[in-house]
Amino acid sequence: MKTVNVEVWSDFVCPWCWIAKKRFEKAVVSLAGQVQVVVSHLAYRRAKDVLPMDYKTALQQKLGGAAAADRMMEAVSANGLMEGLVYNFDAMRFGDTTKAHALLKNIGDPLLAQRLMERLYKAGTTDGLDIFDRDVLISLAKEVGVTDTSFDLESARIAAEIQRDESRASRIANGVPLFLFNDSVFVSGARDVSVFERAILDAAREAPEEITGVAEGGSCGIDGCSY
């Protein structure tokens, strides 16, 4: 069985990233037995140095008004429901997610890290929890089974690692979600499950090309989101 290594860049305040994560996971499951997929999650901050703020306000500022923000929220909510996800924009907040990414990088167990990543998405997107607060982050880590709570979320080493993650992403594409398969094939945006399946199979065949010729999925960059 061939192995495909997938590097995934995402951010917890990117509304499309959770959707893309679910669709990618469906693709991995559908190809189980054909391709072994090894996933590495990398950090990307859409709002570096931005203090937490109301998500609707942030969308309006980035998209140029309430009408555009409403269209974006409608598109995200509709796509989210297809994956069983609830977007509570009235409670969501937007800001610098350095601490959340640092928390994940403190966790050596891949399974626990995966559980925590999923919990962080739900906490900030559905539950209205403050994922910018250290105490909340530590509580979420404990909730998924992390026992070591002596995390250094201000670690210079981890901060440098986050910077390296973002620099690598910027050399591949603009914004997140971003998936790089075997360092050759990349997919940007919350694409359909079939697109992720094709990318995995193309990477397994060592086809060095970007997936094109299909409708683009929603994605988020430093300056805003598209769909």
From TrEMBL:
Residue ranges annotated for the DSBA-like thioredoxin domain, each copy included: 6-200
The source's superkingdom equals: Bacteria
Report the InterPro entries cross-referenced here: DSBA-like_thioredoxin_dom, Thioredoxin-like_sf
Q: Which GO terms describe its molecular function?
A: oxidoreductase activity
**What is the protein name given in its UniProt record?**
DsbA family oxidoreductase
Q: Which organism is it from?
A: Achromobacter ruhlandii
